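#structure-requests
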Amino acid sequence: MNRYLILGFAVFVYFILHTASWAAPSTQGGYVGVGITIEQINGKIVITEVRQDGPAEKAGILRNDEIILIDSQMIAGLNIDQVGSRIRGPEGTEVAFGLARAGHDDLLELKVVRAWIEIQCFIEGWVDLQAYGTNPYYRLDGWLGRDRVYLDLYGNRVSGWYKGERLDLNIYGDRYTQEISGWIHNQYVRWRGQNGWFHTYQNCIE
């Protein structure tokens, strides 16, 4: 699950086990929103991430707060997409949250002003890598987003440097279908390819 997707204009819904998350795909530049990630857990809408210095954090919203009301309206019975739609709105407008918080008996009422949130992506765009060389030594030559890269491929490991960060990824599969997977900049990635060519789109990794 992508833990760093942030609430914005567009809708992205995904389900994993018994948990559903709602968030907008991040894009280079930014988006208008309140700066939270919400998940539907056991029928409750819970805030699982609060963006640092974002509108929600400044208003006092905390991770693990449960959303009960939006603009004085109960959200019981709404799915995560419908809740997200109620949170979205134009820049400069206000949305009011009624929140249940551990250790507080009363409902907390906090107002958040939607704002433009800057995003700087570590990687975003097309991953386009081609394997070259002779067994067991290969190289992956190509692009990560807008950046040209040259990575080492030996056995089932892909390694190299990108923007000053050491990459150490796994590669699995057979001659025809392969997958590169692992952690980059604290986010899990999975790139699939065929015949030594990997071509897939990578959403923003902040």
